[in-house]
Amino acid sequence: MTDNQTVQAYTEAWTHSIESISELVAPLPEGSWNRATECPGWSVRDVVSHVIAVESELLGDPRPIHSLPRDLRHVTTEFARYIELPVDKRRCHTALEMTSELEYTIIRRSRALRNAKQTPGELVRWPAGPLAGELPYHELLRMRAFDVWVHEQDLRRALDTPGNLAAPGALVARDFLLERLPKAVAHTAGAPAGTTLVVDVTGPVEFLRTVRVDSTGRGSVDESISLAPDVQLTMDWETYVRLACGRGRPGPVTVEGDKELAERVLANFSVTI
Questions:
Q1: Would you tell me how many other CB atoms lie within 10 Å of the CB of residue 84?
Q2: For residue 188, what is the DSSP state?
Q3: Is 222 exposed, middle or buried (0-12, 13-18, 19+ CB in 10 A)?
Q4: What gap in Å lies between CA 248 and CA 218, rounded to an integer?
Q5: For the structural domain made of 174-267, what CATH number should be given?
Q6: Which of 7, 17, 176, 188 places its Cα 20 to 30 Å from the Cα of 30?
């Protein structure tokens, strides 16, 4: 796949997921917007607000002027405060205000993506408060396709409306999360040098990957089969996503091999901020 094809694929994945969110929330009555999601402290309204806020900032819109309450227990870092401010600003918005702003944001952002002049590798600004910086244009699109698909799934679980688990955004999420798995196993979970860990994922998105920790303690992941791994974790795709995105400890996860190491890995499986 060429660089331009990659950009197009990420754009199409983003479009599919954000339009799916719009279709999902458009008919919701006011009460459903207050349903809790698996994102700590966030309701359906809050997740949609976050999606709107990030896309609006990428469009160059100014940050809202708003004083964030200091007693929000789920806000524990400066980055979290940065993300929370535009979310809290919209907590008094009605269903109609939310759906209208979302639709308008999608129209504007889609137009901006169609007319974008950046080359795939061109460095662009990533507006993320304390984590702000520059990254290649294709990587920004990848992160937005990943984030929007994950939040679509947050909304679907909260609203008991499953779907799109094998959408284009799901494949972006698979690759994004797998790239970060070796660090979670080798560094965060502290798997010793020489460890091999197999992850067998079933369901709408199937894959088998082996994480290997080398003699220096560095992890890597590949598609080769390990016949006698130290640990094998078997789970379905949705469980994998929820674990890797820090959405609690869903189940079931079948564990074979070193149980103590497996528990340590599962406790440190989240690779998102």
A1: 22
A2: I
A3: exposed
A4: 26
A5: 3.30.1050.10
A6: 17
For 126, 165, 167, 184, the CA distances from 157, given in Å and listed in that order, are 29, 11, 16, 25
DSSP label at 68? P
Residue at token pair 């409306």: 161
Domain spanning 3-164: which superfamily?
A: dinb family like domain (1.20.120.450)
Nearest to 164 by CA among 53, 17, 55: 17
Name residue 123's beta-bridge partners: 136
Which residue ranges make up each domain of the chain? Answer: 3-164, 174-267
Q: What token pair was written down for 110?
A: 């889609």
Per-residue pLDDT tens digits for 209-240: 999 999 999 999 999 988 899 999 999 999 99
Q: Is the pTM of this model over 0.85?
A: yes
